[in-house]
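Section 4.2 – Deliverable D4.2 (structural model, holo form)

The reporting period included a commitment to supply a predicted holo structure for the target in complex with 5'-O-[N-(L-tyrosyl)sulfamoyl]adenosine. Inputs used:
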Amino acid sequence: MDTERIRAIEEEGKKAFAEADSEESLRELEVRFLGRKSELTGILKGLKDLDAEEKRTVGPLVQGVRVALSEAFSAAAERIAREGRDWEAERIDVTAPGVSDPMGHLHPITSLIHEIEDIFTGMGFGIADGPDVESDFYNFEALNFPADHPARDMQDTFWVDSDGLDTRYVLRTHTSPVQVRYMETHTPPFRIIVPGRTFRCESTDATHEHTFHQFESLVVGETGSVTVGHLKRVAETFFSEFFGRSITVRLRPSYFPFVEPGFEFDISCVFCGGKGCPACKNVGWLEIGGAGMVQQKVFEAAGYPRGKYQGFAWGFGLERLAMMKFRIPDTRMFMSGDLRFIRQF
Ligand code: YSA
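Output (structure tokens):
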């Protein structure tokens, strides 16, 4: 066997690999020097026909050349890949300012609910919840709105198609039905708030939406233990903390079938402190909801014995509070889905 030739193949191959300048030419050289039909592979295959003496010298030589050429091929492949890269396009400016991914956040009304819950849990209140689709019984009947009673017209109602059902359903017009639901399963004394979504079938304007939020409060104890004074004091404490300034509460006599006495609930204007300004139409007060002492009929509907308990309740409009807190002129902005509005919070 011609060992000179084997050494010559190594030299030729190494030189060719080192000079290759494209992936394509390198592939061709690989086939030529290392492929199945290459001269080197032919020599390797022919080893078996050599005598023992020759095998001992030629075998390691051919194997060594094969390894050396494989390495030369790999080095060339790496070099060509490196030379072929567009380094300018791959340049990374590590000093460039970062690009942050857009991140969503809570809706302002949701944040407000969390804030209100924090204030009330701090005063020892629990938080209760109820369904958005409510039966006529809980939304009206149990709250002392008898069927066909004119007081039902106070709340324009979305009726749910209840054909074939034994009771009629509505989109709840207020959070007050949760009062009855909660009392059915709890025994006084207790104090809760109920934040939630409510619906009214009415034409919308700057202060009225078809979908809005209320938060109810219900505090019940043995007769004589809960008074209108507590209602006023708890509300004042809450509002002062919520608006970060001293707030006074005013109750005006009013009618809701589920309270006796019932009140329209005003707070001193959060903008002028009660002196009078455009926001409060110069009266110094802002109306935010209804309140009162729970009617005994409501206790009875929940299964409590008449006269045993006494309690106060209120229902405030959450959007109205948000409008005052964030100085928003139109309640319809909250449900508009307009991200320019939402992103400000
Ligand atoms: C009264 C006595 C209680 O013991 C307990 C609760 C209540 C409140 C009663 N359930 C109720 O819903 N009264 S209300 O019809 O006057 O609504 C209360 C508040 O919800 C309003 O003062 C207002 O702030 C808000 N509200 C009502 N309709 C609205 C609205 N907010 C936005 N859009 C509407 N369409």
